[in-house]
């Protein structure tokens, strides 16, 4: 199996875009043998995102869960295929918040996707795919299979846009342009965002989604 075969394999399983990156400098030390990351991008339904006005919809919450489930399933199948070929692989769950590190997963999908050159981090702290904008969900597989890596994106292309800053009901988005290495808290207040969702959208997915900054971003509309 090579990088081309891997991309075709995942596209046939329903992945919209696949990219590869070298994560040697950012991977946790216990996973240091997994130098490469495979980024999986699934485009969300434009119709469902467009229906979000001033709060999430039940359909959006269901879609969000389905896409995460789909990503996890494709990552599992890809991990099995890689291991059958003699490579090591670790699938990082599509949506995960560690018990000892709130609002963070085991490895940042957005870091892998920007290193693969698939897009940048927006003022909203969302990953902004070059074509689909923030209307995506991401997955990541760490592997020791040598892959042809993309050219990293190291800065924002948001420019002077402030649409997400002005549309966030929690006023959680600071308005800074991202550059590589910036901490998320410099872009947005994850706790403020989560608190707003829990207080105002408890009736939809128990306050676990919002989607307004995804809907309003002009990229990928
Ligand atoms: S998800 Fe909603 S509350 Fe959170 S930053 Fe985006 S618009 Fe603001
Ligand atoms: S709405 Fe504008 S500022 Fe916010 S992420 Fe999208 S392009 Fe960037």
UniProtKB/TrEMBL annotation:
Keyword field: Iron, Iron-sulfur, Metal-binding
InterPro entries xref list: 4Fe4S_Fe-S-bd, 4Fe4S_Fe_S_CS
Source taxon at top rank: Bacteria
Residue ranges of every copy of the 4Fe-4S ferredoxin-type domain listed in the record: 149-178
GO molecular function: iron-sulfur cluster binding; metal ion binding
Name the record gives this protein: 4Fe-4S dicluster protein
Organism field: Alkalibaculum bacchi
